[in-house]
């Protein structure tokens, strides 16, 4: 059974005991919600890029540590030549300095990553708040439709009773 109330632009379809109300429910803050979704996506992209930077710096530190380890092993295995030993010492010092510079950069990048993580949390909260508001308004809208439907049915019943009383007199 289909009931169409043109004045209210409501279409109600009955399926057994289930009532589905269909109307172009329009969330007035939809543009703001869409903006919040885009902001969250942008922050997530920035987070992913920053996380990649942090991973790359950690990988670089491990790579230099491996080079450093290789220098220590080759120094033990090689016959000690003072010139080679001095060059190896300078190279080891250089590698250690590289590790310290990269660790400092890693620390800065991790701080940036944490700030982005906080921004992402805030963006998620803003988006979720609007989604909850939309759900709440949609439920209120559906409740209003149900109330209107009940009133329309009551009006029909009252009208029929009044009509049947007039016909019996």
Key traits:
80% helix, 3 strands, 2 helices, 169 residues, 3-stranded antiparallel β-sheet, disordered N terminus
How do the helices and strands line up, and which of them pair or pack?
Layout: E1 2-5, E2 10-15, E3 18-22, H1 30-77, H2 82-168
Antiparallel strand pairs: 1-2, 2-3
Helix pairs in contact: 1-2
Oligomer state of the chains in this structure: single chain
> What helical percentage do the residues reach?
over 70%
Roughly how many Å apart are the termini? 33 Å
Largest sheet: 3 strands, antiparallel
- Give the strand tally: 3
- C-alpha geometry: rod-shaped
Structural class: mainly alpha
Summarize the structure.
The chain has 169 residues and is mainly alpha-helical. The protein has helices at residues 30-77, 82-168, and strands at residues 2-5, 10-15, 18-22.
Could you explain the architecture of this structure?
With 169 residues, the protein is mainly alpha-helical. The protein has a domain at 28-121. The protein is 80% helix and 9% strand. The protein is built from 2 helices and 3 strands; from the N terminus they run βββαα. Strands 1-2-3 form a 3-stranded antiparallel sheet, covered by helices on one side. A hairpin with a 4-residue loop joins strand 1 and strand 2 (10-15). The longest helix is centred in the last third of the chain and has 87 residues, at 82-168. The radius of gyration is 36 Å and the shape is rod-shaped. 2% of the residues are buried. Mean pLDDT is 83; it is low at 1-22.
């Amino acid at each position: 059974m289909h009931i169409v109330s043109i004045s209210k632009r409501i279409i109600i379809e009955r399926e057994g005991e289930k009532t589905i109300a269909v109307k172009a429910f329009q969330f007035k803050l939809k543009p703001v919600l869409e903006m919040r979704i885009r902001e969250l996506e942008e922050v997530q992209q920035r987070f992913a890029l920053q996380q990649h930077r942090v991973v790359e710096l950690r990988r670089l530190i491990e790579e230099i540590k491996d080079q450093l380890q290789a220098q220590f092993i080759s120094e033990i295995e090689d016959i000690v030549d003072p010139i080679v030993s001095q060059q190896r010492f300078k190279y080891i010092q250089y590698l250690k300095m590289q590790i310290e510079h990269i660790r400092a950069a890693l620390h800065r990048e991790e701080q940036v990553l944490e700030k982005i993580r906080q921004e992402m949390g805030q963006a998620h909260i803003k988006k979720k708040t609007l989604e909850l508001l939309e759900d709440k308004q949609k439920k209120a809208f559906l409740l209003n439709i149900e109330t209107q439907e009940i009133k329309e049915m009551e009006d029909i019943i009252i009208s029929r009773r009044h009509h049947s009383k007039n016909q019996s007199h």
